[in-house]
Amino acid sequence: MKRKHGYRIRRFGIVPKILFFFVDSPLTPLFIGASILLGGLAVALLPREEEPQIVVPVIDVFVQMPGATAKEVEQRVTKPLEKLAWELPGVEYIYSTSSTGKSLTVVRFLVGWDEAEAIVQLYQKLYANLDRIPPGASQPLLKPRRIDDVPVLALTFHGNGYDGHALRRIAAVVDDAIKQVTNVSETTLIGGQRRAIRVEL
Questions:
Q1: Coil vs helix vs strand at 174
Q2: What does the alpha-carbon distance between residue 170 and residue 48 come to, in Å, rounded to a whole number?
Q3: Which of 12, 62, 100, 169 has its CA at 20 to 30 Å from residue 124's CA atom?
């Protein structure tokens, strides 16, 4: 046994020897400085992206069924499409929306799944089962969606004394103004009431 810095260490203890070597060595500050410098360089040179390109195949399936209520669209169009989509390998989530005269089914595949393969699989599955689509409904329209297609800004218009038609007219003016902004790729106007003409006989 021997004493060093007021501590007792065993002559054969390798861990204490290494510890005291770095405590006493004049090279320790150099090692620390080099580690900090290399860490700073690694952070500075590390590639960064605000919206990294992650491959997540997402496909929207649109079906029109004029004259059908939202309940009819859900039972006769949306649910059969969901069952067909769930039979495909790689499907992780399915979101659907049924409204008057139309159905939207969003099929999302696993992260990293080949996008082209996902589109082909879903297309073949749906068009091989067109007999399940009721009369009066359109053929499925498939539209792939990418991460960059996610809206970066959503505006909601509301106000006392304004009906759905008036709010939509105001939103349409704002929509036209936003389209004039540089680098804006797409805008979508949702909701409100469109102008309609009713003919009674």
A1: helix
A2: 39
A3: 100
